[in-house]
Amino acid sequence: MSPRTWLLPFLVLLLLGGTGTALYIGGLGSPGKHLDHFPIAVVNQDKGTVTPDGGREDLGQNITEEMQKGFSSSNEIELRVLSWDDAQAQMRQGDVHGTVVIPESFSADATALVSGSLSADVVSRPSITVYTNPLAGPLASSLATNAIHPALEQANRGLGEQLSSSATQAQDQAQTELRGQLEELGTQLPAQLEQQIAPKIGGTSADLLADPIAITTTAFEEPPEGAALGEGAFFYSVLLMVVGLSGSVALHFLIDSRLGVAPVELGPRFVLGPQLRPARWFTYLVKWGIVIIAALPTAGLMMWVASAVGMAIPHGGWFFLTTWLSIVTVSAVTFALITLFGSAGMILSLIYVVFMGLPAATGVVPLEALPGFFRVIAPAEPLYHMTMANRAVLYFDASADAGVQGGIIGMLVITLIAVVAAVVFSAIYDRMLGRRGANLAPSAGGTAA
């Protein structure tokens, strides 16, 4: 057997294996190491409080400033100081992956711990709530909490030291005042009895003062049933990509066979139509036009099946549009690459649409946690815009700002570029090289149709 027979397939397999591993594993393997302006919000609702000595404490503002200072040392985290209304709006659009909320009574609760440590009064721990955004992706929520919790733990330690010091001073002052009152009354108590009645910080109070903040982590909005923990939109987009890519490749062979361009085997049949020698650009438009029409019932069927197996579809009209447009976009790109590069276009489609598209789609790892290469190519990837549009429809009330508008426009732009490139360059090919046609004849044992 000639080396030409097996060498090229061997090299193709090496190319796909190596390229796929480098792009997919390289892109998704270490998201925590590639954080760049990862968006997190802090909402300071604390109203502050007046201390017993007439001073004022704004502990929520102190924590906010400490977080700003800590995160400003690098470009990994983009901390946004927002109102609660703005934070909710950005969470509902998937623009923020986590939000820290400091309540109105934070300073009052914290300072009350000092006086409570010297009395039997019941006090509440100052609390902070961390809201995650699983609808923007479960991994994004994990990255957000991994960034937020160390900052809050540091703030907790700092506040604990401050409160413990204040409590110690208050204890010393209370004991001094007790001695003064006893002296004024002319009462001399045994040292042991005086020590027993003197105000002092108990062990439990000391532990509470050292670890004062109660941190609660909860989801801002839980993913609906059938949403695959927030990744359902991405999985559905990947399915659309597979349908668009594999369907286009299958249709490419079938149409070429009918136009007499290249033979195709259908089981025992060897099919090759009359050699019509159509223009390359005409063949492209015929193939893509069939997909445009066939994608309409396909989109409806996919939506029906998805709904039947439990996926919630809140905006059917918009979801039908993004489903249909996703298939059409992938098809336009696949046919364009095949038209421009022949059979090698199928390999290029795998590399561009699948291997480069999957990491850049932000379905698994958010864009802000990807290597810089994928942040650059994401706007040129069909799967990125498909995922953004489908996710916005399913989880973010079909909001234009949440990704519907950008996703649809992005898919239309990619489609337009693919169609123009395929038509223009195929016309140039035909003019320079002549119309393509098949010179192969069916084998003696086969049948032609």
Structure characterization notes:
- The chain is an alpha/beta fold and 449 residues long.
- It contains 15 helices and nine strands.
- The strands form three sheets. Strands 4-1-5-6-7 form a five-stranded mixed sheet, with helices on both faces. It has a two-stranded antiparallel sheet with strand order 2-3.
- Helix 2 crosses helix 5, helix 8 packs across helix 10 (316-341) and helix 9 runs antiparallel to helix 15 (400-433).
What key phrases describe this protein's structure?
single chain, 449 residues, alpha/beta, 5-stranded mixed β-sheet, two-stranded antiparallel sheet, 15 helices, 9 strands, 61% helix, elongated, disordered C terminus
Topology:
Blueprint: H1 3-28, E1 38-44, E2 49-50, E3 56-57, H2 59-71, E4 77-81, H3 84-92, E5 98-102, H4 106-116, E6 127-132, H5 138-185, H6 191-197, H7 203-210, E7 214-219, H8 232-258, E8 264-266, E9 269-271, H9 280-308, H10 316-341, H11 344-355, H12 357-360, H13 372-377, H14 382-395, H15 400-433
Parallel strand pairs: 1-4, 1-5, 6-7
Antiparallel strand pairs: 2-3, 5-6, 8-9
Describe the structure concisely.
With 449 residues, the protein is an alpha/beta fold.
Largest sheet: 5 strands, mixed
Task: Give the strand line-up of the largest sheet.
Answer: 4-1-5-6-7
Name the average pLDDT: 85
Q: Tell me, what's the shape?
A: elongated
Number of helices: 15
How much helicity do the residues have?
55-70%
**Unreliable stretches:** 437-449
What share of residues are in beta strands?
5-15%
The class by helix and strand makeup works out as: alpha/beta
Oligomer: single chain
* Topology order in helix (H) and strand (E) letters: HEEEHEHEHEHHHEHEEHHHHHHH
- How far apart the termini lie comes to 32 Å
Please count the beta strands (DSSP E, at least 2 residues each).
9
Rg, Cα atoms, Å: 33 Å
